[in-house]
Amino acid sequence: IDEQRDAMRKESDALVEERASVELEWNQLEKREHALAERTAALEKRQADVNEAIRLTKSETKKERKRLASVESDLLAKDAALNERSVELNSIEQALHERKAEFDRIEAEQAGERAMLEDLTKAANEKVDAAR
């Protein structure tokens, strides 16, 4: 009977030790689970922050593309207006050159007429002087 009692005590002690070992392992597993849950929550928050940053970046990129398209449109309109002004300026310059050529032609004609008038006046003066 004593042997049975000793055997039962040993078995009971072994079960108590096994239970303590299982409880210790369980506590360690719970701590690891808690740590993993915290890391998972931190990673999920970080992922949400990254997703928000990506969304904001996309939004800013979209706004910047719209702004650049608007600037490009404005520049194209200004370039077209500048081209139109350039055509007008070329037309004005062409008209100016034509008027200058006409002016030069008239001036040459007038110079010729003045020379002829001077010759006639000189000849008339000579006739008047000769007649005196």
Summary of the model, kept short:
Helix content is 98%, strand content 0%. The chain has 132 residues and is mainly alpha-helical.
Structural category is mainly alpha
Percent strand: under 5%
Distance between the termini: 188 Å
Order of helices and strands: H
Which term fits the overall shape?
rod-shaped
Total number of beta strands: 0
Helix segment tally? 1
Radius of gyration: 55 Å
The major β-sheet equals: none
Mean pLDDT: 96
* Residue runs with pLDDT of under 50 for 5 or more positions: none
**Roughly what percent helix?**
over 70%
Structure description:
This protein has 132 residues and is mainly alpha-helical. Helices cover 98% and strands 0% of the residues. It has one helix and no strands. It has one helix at 2-131. The N and C termini lie far apart (188 Å). 0% of the residues are buried.
Keyphrases for this structure?
1 helix, mainly alpha, single chain, 132 residues
Topology, element by element:
Layout: H1 2-131
